[in-house]
């Protein structure tokens, strides 16, 4: 039951409700109480018992909760229903409309002191900001959601923690994103709070930063744990997200058929749930899979489908990231001019603080295109920019590949010592993927 307001607040509220209804203190009091008691209560000099407040609520024709807390009857239930509607709006890709809904709901929850609903609205606003690529705003909303939940059990805070970790990951802060995921996983497993939904959310979320950091073994382990947890989870959207993330580790291990099957499962679930942005992400991942397998025409088709779906929903950051993948496929299909135009357009929307890894990818690809055109000066400029972005992000796998490209270019232009330095840097990042930037791997959950 909601906590009651203090005597003075309740007293003023009773007086206001009584006056609005044109009742005297005697009419409100009878038959169980006296007018003097009502007068004392309205003056805030007595803490009314629950039976007294229920009697007064019945005489006033309102719910007990409205007298005790000032909240209209069923307000919390109504807010939760409308939060679900806002979540459904966001799922269809209408992030701006959903943000307007969440803002109204947050104001109502604030007015009536409904903490759980405040946290849910802030979480929704964080997800909207994430989809629109406003990473700083997203981080602030997720942090505020965590703060509202305060001392709530950790599983309840996991969605906000996961959102915060993803916003750091998208900003290129891979190490910190891994730290947030791993420390939360360790706490859940260490303290025995084995909530399957919370664990699956975290193991699924940590796969992408692991992969970008070159910690492929850890990514594969997280995927294995996620697959084992999936049968215990009732939320189909969460299971679909797991299948999409796990596919990335399968691709890295050359398990193309399994990855394709996993993506097909995810896409079917998203279609059933009508979650358009996540469905677009499935097309994106399948495009990546086909590109890795050399099926460039199919890859281009999937990536263009993802691009159309994401840009239609104004998911700016994700659209830019897909366009980098698409440009790579276009270049490999001999459409370098089209790829170059797309990449220059992408770089106008990305920055070191917003999509650092894909920004580096764009510079890397522009460097390759410049090398093909015998413009070594421009190629070197793009490689160096990409190197700076990747070093800051700690994306070890991509760093090693870039160092090889830069070393080859420097060697061809006669700068052997500089080329050796580049190769050494690359080898340093490939020596032990992930071990120099990560602590012990998270414990295995009870399965």
Automatic annotation (TrEMBL):
Residues 256-316 form a coiled coil. Keywords: Coiled coil. Pfam families: HTH_31. It comes from the Bacteria. The keyword Repeat does not apply. Residues 14-67 form the HTH cro/C1-type domain. The keyword Lipid biosynthesis does not apply. Residues 427-447 are annotated as: Disordered. Residues 431-441 have a biased composition (Low complexity). PROSITE patterns: HTH_CROC1. One of its GO terms (molecular function) is DNA binding. This is Helix-turn-helix domain-containing protein.
């Amino acid at each position: 039951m909601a906590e009651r307001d203090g005597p003075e607040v309740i007293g003023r509220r009773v007086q206001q409700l009584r006056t609005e209804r044109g009742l005297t203190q005697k009419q409100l009091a009878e038959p169980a109480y006296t007018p003097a008691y009502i007068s004392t209560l309205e003056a805030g000099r007595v803490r009314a018992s629950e039976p007294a407040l229920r009697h007064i609520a019945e005489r006033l024709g309102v719910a007990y909760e409205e007298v005790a807390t000032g909240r209209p009857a069923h307000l919390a239930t109504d807010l939760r229903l409308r939060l679900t509607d806002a979540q459904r709006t966001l799922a269809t890709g209408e992030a701006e409309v959903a943000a307007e809904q969440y803002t109204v709901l947050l104001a109502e929850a604030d007015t009536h002191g409904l903490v759980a609903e405040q946290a849910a609205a802030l979480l929704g606003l964080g997800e909207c900001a994430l989809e629109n690529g406003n990473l700083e705003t997203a981080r602030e909303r997720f942090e505020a959601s965590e703060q509202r939940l305060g001392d709530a059990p950790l599983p309840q805070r996991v969605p906000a923690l996961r959102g915060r970790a993803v916003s750091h990951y998208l900003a290129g802060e891979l190490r910190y994103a891994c730290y947030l995921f791993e420390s939360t996983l360790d706490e859940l497993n260490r303290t025995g709070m084995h909530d399957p939904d919370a664990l699956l959310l975290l193991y699924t979320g940590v796969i992408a930063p692991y992969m970008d950091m070159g910690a492929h073994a850890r990514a594969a382990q997280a995927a294995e744990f996620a697959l084992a947890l999936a049968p215990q989870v009732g939320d189909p959207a969460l299971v679909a997200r797991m299948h999409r993330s796990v596919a990335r580790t399968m691709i890295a291990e050359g398990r193309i058929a399994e990855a394709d099957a996993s993506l097909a499962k995810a896409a079917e679930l998203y279609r059933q749930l009508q979650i358009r942005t996540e469905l677009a992400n499935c097309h994106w991942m399948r495009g990546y899979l086909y590109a890795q397998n050399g099926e460039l025409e199919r890859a281009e088709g999937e990536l263009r489908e993802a691009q159309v779906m994401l840009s239609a929903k104004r998911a700016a950051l994700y659209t830019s990231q897909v366009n980098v993948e698409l440009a790579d496929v276009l270049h490999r299909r001999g459409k370098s001019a089209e790829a170059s135009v797309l990449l220059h357009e992408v770089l106008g929307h990305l920055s070191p603080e917003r999509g650092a890894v894909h920004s580096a990818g764009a510079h890397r690809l522009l460097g390759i295109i410049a090398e093909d055109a015998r413009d070594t000066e421009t190629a070197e400029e793009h490689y160096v920019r990409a190197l700076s972005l990747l070093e800051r992000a700690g994306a070890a796998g991509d760093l090693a590949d870039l160092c090889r490209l830069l070393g080859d270019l420097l060697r061809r232009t006669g700068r052997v010592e500089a080329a050796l330095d580049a190769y050494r840097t690359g080898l340093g990042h490939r020596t032990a993927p992930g071990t120099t930037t990560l602590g012990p791997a998270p414990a295995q959950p009870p399965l």
